[in-house]
Amino acid sequence: MLIKQHLVFIFILISAFGQAQYDDQSTASDSSQFLSLIYANRDLTYFTFFDGVGNLPNMVTEARFSGSYFLKNSKVNWALELNLNMTLRILDKKSYPIPPPSYNPELTYYRLIRSSNSGVLSKLLFKNAYWEISLGHHSNGRAGDFYKADSLGNETRQIDLRDASFTTHYIELGYSTFHHRKNNAGQDFYTNLKLALRVLPALMATEELNDSYGFYRAFITYNIFRIPLGNLQNSSGFFSRSRLRFHAGWIFGDVFNAAANEAEKRLVGEVTWFYFPDWLAEMGFFVQYYYGQDYYNLQFMRTMNTFRIGISSNPLNFSGFRKFLKN
After folding, report:
1. Any signal peptide, and if so, which residues (predicted)?
2. Which residues contact 223 (CB under 8 A, 6 or more apart)?
3. pLDDT tens string 234-244
4. Do 8 and 279 touch, CB atoms closer than 8 A?
5. Domains of the chain listed by start with CATH number
């Protein structure tokens, strides 16, 4: 109960702080271009080559289709995004079966935070920043009983991974700040820090998930765009078209057979490197290591530990990003 109270308090505090930092005198230029920052952090469409190296079942691919639709006017300091996320896995078995996909649509409201030009804290945290609030749904589109029945029709404690109903809803509050930086050699690069808190109301989830899924989550993400390595003179070189993403999270609340401090069940960690070549404008390549709860519907009982490669959509126009972020 104490954890719940703390999370609610943090939500209210971040929301109020974000509103307090906003300056209604923001310029049209700022409000029209902060969509570049939002776009940089959006969920990417991707597919993997097979299942990678780890403990996932043998697969042909895992693919996520992330279609974003924005409502944004150049003269306002907010944006609204509808993202129709869907993730599916194609198993490497006869006829290549597809388990029930993950349906994960999100509606997100973004609000620009305008920094005052004084104060070290303001320049560090609010120079190019926004806060966001999302309403999300995650389900597998099934309506069957959660547990399988035995030959006599009695319920067992074995989850029906094919037909059981899996449904959750959530609200997530996040804060992102971006910075334009230079290394000692004078190379430009960009960093992004994102903090997020997610609550999944128990009344809006499949009842059997109450003591096993973990309904309170905290995340931190750090991105480096245009990795500052390589030839200073070559602005379109290998590292200047790369992105490095570090993501970590912790699952609070009741998790099946997990103590409150059991990292094996509660920790989420991810490191992903992306490369976006000029000759493949809309797509890029990625290499990823992921550890943590499996995000694929009823597979949440598995702790994923996998290394994989794949192809993803390109998150942003690097040249447009450069024009917006100031020193």
Report:
1. 1-20
2. 40, 41, 191, 192, 194, 243, 244, 245, 246
3. 556 788 889 99
4. no
5. 2-324 (2.40.230.10)
pLDDT (0 to 100) of residue 83: 94
Q: What angle do CA 53, 59, 60 make, to 5 degrees?
A: 110
pLDDT, residue 45, reads 94
Assigned token pair, 189: 């690069």
CB proximity list for 11: less than 8 A, separation 6 or greater? 173, 197, 199
Give the pairing of strands 242-252 and 267-275.
Answer: antiparallel
Secondary structure letter of residue 144 according to DSSP: B
Would you give the DSSP letter of residue 226? S
What does the DSSP assignment read for 33-85?
Answer: HTHHHHHHTSPPPEEESTT-EESSPPEEEEEEEEEEEEE--TTSSEEEEEEEE
| Rg, the chain, Cα only | 21
Scanning the chain, the segments in alpha helix (DSSP H) are 2-21, 28-33, 35-40, 120-125, 263-266, 318-324
List the chain residues with pLDDT less than 70. 1-33, 115-124, 151-154, 231-236, 316-327
